[in-house]
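Researcher: Please generate the 3D structure of the following complex. Treat every line as part of one assembly.
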Amino acid sequence: MIFSTTTEYAIRGISELEIKSNQQPILLDDLIKGTDLPREFMAKVMQKLSKAGLLQSAKGRGGGFKLARPAYEIRLIDVVIAIEGEGRMGGCVLGMSRCNDAMPCAQHDLYKPIRQRLVDYMQTTTVADLAASLRQKRVRG
Amino acid sequence: MIFSTTTEYAIRGISELEIKSNQQPILLDDLIKGTDLPREFMAKVMQKLSKAGLLQSAKGRGGGFKLARPAYEIRLIDVVIAIEGEGRMGGCVLGMSRCNDAMPCAQHDLYKPIRQRLVDYMQTTTVADLAASLRQKRVRG
DNA sequence: TTGTCAAAAGATCAAAAGGTCTTGAAATAG
DNA sequence: CTATTTCAAGACCTTTTGATCTTTTGACAA
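Model: Done. Output below.
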């Protein structure tokens, strides 16, 4: 509803990583085990998160992915920006590139509170929160 | 940021219509006059709004588009649903089709308040509000 | 050093979204 | 009835997004 599917994958992936990891690197194959995540595409997504500095990756034996810092220090907004770039959050709330000062979109002001609320949420929610929520969901069904 | 560009066009289009109309049908050419909206694509969007019952359309001389009911009786959510369908609002908040009870997405519960806020906004904001906002923006610059 | 493992990177492919163009059909004026 | 106006509808094109496949690179173990 709000994010692209690629971003959803990233959120899901980093949450799964936090759940399955015990400070040790997790293999892509293990990460997607038990999920319906598409392996090859997921590889790209994880690469992006690595390049953005949210994950550390290692090749070869004992390799895999792990969080670059504690889960509670990675905010949802960091994940979103890693995938979609800064642009989407700034500028026009409706994302209209055609929208500018000379020809503003109808929503410019109206939307501010809504958007701010979303941004707040993304800034205060961490990967630790997401993982906890996902774990709980699995237990309770 | 939140809606697809097609939906943005719909919001913009119906707002322009309300601004330019004096109870009389407006031609597509007049609707887009002074805007950067793509005419042909806009025709499709307006057609969708007509089929959804938000607009009335008439062919031939004296034809064009007009609101099917007063602007204050057309909610933003009606416009969004007309373009994107019901599905997007219901179901998973993140829009994941892969998300279900057996394999819920990480956000299912976390997002509820945010989503509810958005839905509230879309239910209480009408085309009259949007048009007023747009008009004001034009005057004040 | 050699072999194997696993991520990185790039090519490629498919589907969806966004946008254009052409033809058809309805309404009205003359 | 015919010509013109204007929306409707469908074919078609382009770009972006989502997804896969293959090759390369780096790390470790023996």
